[in-house]
């Protein structure tokens, strides 16, 4: 938690206020865009009740309004300007889990889920966790095998498979 | 007593070897889910939902609801032993639970927490047993306007009672509604907000959103705070359990108060998180030595745990009786109901007696079994946290991916899950609550349908929402909820007193969950 005595001072990458303003502005853009799209398909009132775009159009208006309030209140807040959204090294750690995750999803598309999860778990343990190689590979193997047993053999849940499973006739 | 007859019928449904086994498996999985950071009630249930697609609905709901009870129990373990709330609703448990563990009273604190959870749940289940059939029979008279009014009440109470800034709650709600509206319009058949994409045609599945918003984002947050698990040792001896239980009757008032708060906040969508803080704060205020709170006082563990469990359990009441979930996990269970081909709502009590009463019976048995299992297995589950995070994190991510994929067998959904993960991470950090979004995603289409069906009826004006006593009362109540902060302030001004309400006191102490 935050009261960790030996927490090193982590220089701020970006303040909470900047992030909040950017997010609110993005939401405003989304709201305008969606509002326009729903206006296009009809946001009025037909003889038999509201048209298809009626509900989403007014939701977009509401979203736009709320994000405007959000921009204003974030800009006015002194407190948020000094609040650190994420520190440099903290963000590094976030990337260290997020980038491998993206690679993992790519691997799922290429090799199927079971092989990809073996590679992901083992590689993550070796390179990010700095754990011993044989332990990591064993853990990955057991984990993938267990997943295969539970999902494919016990519950018949079809998950993406790749060339390896095909070679074994699954 | 018709309810009691039905309940015994429910026990009959439940007491098969198959269902009992599922119950035990569910509880153990649930405790694991509750202990692991990054997996929680809603996404734990969402990930395991695909496993139940081939089961019969009764067994499926028994498994899933027991995962939920287990998660409620499990959250307390990490709070007390590691000072890390495994769940947002167990944040308040750390205030006194961890100091107790530091003083070497970990076993007492854990026993107190589990027993309190048990008490809270049982009170809430009794409420469900006797109230749900009554509400359901009442709700049979509901037409589209009444249902829309109830949806409105749900969303208005979110805005009115939420502890976050209002505009952030509204943002969360509207995004949920907008996402729900993507795809084919159910009334006119027109395509909305698909922008020519075939993937968007299916619309957004809320399970994928839940897994991303709650699961992936939690992993990112956990990684950022580089969790170093340094926990206290725990072994619960039977003598300690007895000794702690003997002291509990002294705190009957705290238990009762927290149960009542929990039941109330669970039924209105305040949820377990708000309930646990409110339970804690009220116990502190009414206690004779409130100053000792935060230094390892057993009441400080009892109060939030009882309230959180009462809320978590009673959140299922509106889900069963009206088809409106009171919490994120209840929303996921509701999604499960629809996948299994059941129509949630009042008719469930008439058409699916086995299912409903089997579920209610499993709440009783599940909590008793949960209490015993959790007391016996604390050391085992505590040791899970000593496994390096670099081992657990990728496994959780793989589980999330499996859950997201299996909903519709779509690769696109895994990417979508990652997207929701980023959104969840940013939103959590800037204080936009995620629960309203989830609920709006689940209920969005139904709320819109109810609205449009009411408009197609009679005169097609807003007046329909005040056209009879029932719908008028609910709609008015919804508006009162929406403007509750203003009304509360007005009342305070009239009284001329400056002291804050318990709800606002709770919000000032709660940090980002």
TrEMBL record, chain A:
Transmembrane segment boundaries: 12-36, 56-76, 97-127, 133-151
Record-annotated DUF1468 domain positions: 23-160
Xref: Pfam families: TctB
Source superkingdom: Bacteria
Keywords: Membrane, Transmembrane, Transmembrane helix
InterPro entries assigned: DUF1468
Protein name (Swiss-Prot/TrEMBL): DUF1468 domain-containing protein
Organism whose genome encodes this protein: Starkeya nomas
Automatic annotation (TrEMBL), chain B:
InterPro entries: DUF112_TM
Signal peptide location: none
Record has Transmembrane helix as a keyword: yes
One Pfam family matching this protein: TctA
Source taxon at top rank: Bacteria
TM segment ranges: 21-40, 60-82, 109-136, 142-162, 169-188, 200-221, 260-280, 319-343, 355-381, 387-407, 414-443, 463-487
DUF112 domain location: 20-438
Keywords from the UniProt entry: Membrane, Transmembrane, Transmembrane helix
Keyword Transmembrane helix: yes
UniProt-recorded name of the protein: DUF112 domain-containing protein
Annotated organism of origin: Starkeya nomas
């Amino acid at each position: 938690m935050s009261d960790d005595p030996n927490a090193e001072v982590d220089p701020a990458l970006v303040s909470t206020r900047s992030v909040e303003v950017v997010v609110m502005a993005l939401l405003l853009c989304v709201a305008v865009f969606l509002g326009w799209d729903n206006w296009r398909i009809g946001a009025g009132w037909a003889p038999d009740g509201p048209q298809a775009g009626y509900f989403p159009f007014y939701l977009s208006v509401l979203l736009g309004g709320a994000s405007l309030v959000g921009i204003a209140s974030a800009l006015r807040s002194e407190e948020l300007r000094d609040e650190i959204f994420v520190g440099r090294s903290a963000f590094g750690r976030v990337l260290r889990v997020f980038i491998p995750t993206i690679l993992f999803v790519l691997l799922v598309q290429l090799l199927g889920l079971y092989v990809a999860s073996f590679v992901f778990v083992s590689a993550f343990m070796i390179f990010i966790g700095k754990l011993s190689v044989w332990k990591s590979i064993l853990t990955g193997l057991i984990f993938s095998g267990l997943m295969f047993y539970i999902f494919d053999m016990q519950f018949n849940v079809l998950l993406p498979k790749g060339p390896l499973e095909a070679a074994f006739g699954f | 007593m018709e309810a009691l007859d039905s309940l015994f019928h429910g026990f009959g449904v439940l007491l098969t070897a198959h269902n009992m086994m599922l119950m035990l498996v569910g509880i153990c999985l649930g405790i694991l889910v509750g202990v692991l950071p990054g997996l929680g009630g809603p996404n734990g249930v969402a990930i395991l939902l695909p496993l139940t697609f081939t089961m019969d609905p009764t067994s499926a709901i028994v498994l899933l609801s027991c995962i939920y009870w287990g998660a409620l129990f499990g959250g307390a373990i990490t709070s007390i032993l590691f000072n890390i709330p495994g769940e947002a609703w167990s944040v308040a448990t750390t205030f006194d639970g961890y100091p107790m563990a530091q003083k070497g009273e970990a076993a007492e604190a854990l026993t107190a927490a589990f027993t309190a959870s048990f008490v809270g749940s049982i009170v809430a289940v009794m409420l469900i047993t006797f109230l749900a059939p009554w509400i359901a029979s009442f709700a049979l008279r509901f037409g589209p306007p009444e249902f829309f009014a109830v949806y409105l009440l749900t969303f208005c109470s979110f805005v009115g009672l939420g502890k976050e800034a209002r505009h952030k709650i509204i943002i969360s709600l509207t995004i949920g509604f907008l996402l729900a509206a993507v795809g084919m319009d159910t009334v006119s058949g027109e395509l909305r907000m698909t922008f020519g994409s075939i993937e968007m045609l299916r619309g957004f599945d809320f399970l994928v959103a839940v897994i991303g918003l709650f699961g992936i984002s939690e992993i990112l947050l956990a990684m950022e705070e580089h969790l170093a698990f340094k926990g206290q040792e725990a072994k619960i001896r039977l003598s300690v359990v007895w000794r702690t239980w003997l002291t509990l009757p002294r705190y009957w008032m705290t238990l009762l108060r927290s149960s009542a708060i929990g039941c109330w906040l669970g039924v209105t969508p305040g949820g377990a998180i708000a309930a646990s803080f409110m339970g804690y704060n009220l116990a502190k205020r009414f206690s004779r030595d409130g100053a000792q709170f935060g230094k390892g006082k057993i009441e400080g563990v009892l109060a939030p745990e009882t309230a959180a469990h009462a809320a978590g359990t009673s959140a299922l009441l509106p889900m069963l009786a009206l088809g409106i979930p009171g919490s994120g996990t209840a929303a996921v269970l509701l999604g499960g109901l629809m996948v299994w081909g059941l129509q949630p709502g009042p008719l469930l009590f008439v058409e699916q007696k086995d299912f409903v009463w089997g579920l209610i019976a499993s709440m009783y048995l599940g909590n008793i079994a949960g209490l015993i299992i959790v007391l016996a297995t604390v050391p085992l589950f505590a040791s899970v946290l000593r496994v390096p995070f670099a081992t657990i994190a990728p496994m959780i991510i793989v589980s999330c991916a499996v859950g997201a994929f299996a909903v519709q067998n779509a690769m696109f959904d895994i990417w979508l899950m990652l997207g929701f993960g980023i959104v969840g991470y940013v939103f959590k950090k800037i204080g936009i609550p995620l629960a309203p979004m989830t609920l709006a995603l689940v209920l969005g289409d139904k709320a819109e349908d109810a609205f449009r069906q009411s408009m197609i009826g009679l005169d097609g004006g807003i007046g329909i929402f005040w056209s009879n006593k029932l719908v008028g009362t609910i709609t008015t109540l919804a508006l009162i909820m929406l403007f509750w902060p203003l009304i509360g302030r007005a009342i305070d001004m009239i009284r001329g007193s400056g002291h804050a309400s318990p709800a606002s006191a709770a919000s000032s102490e709660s940090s980002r969950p």
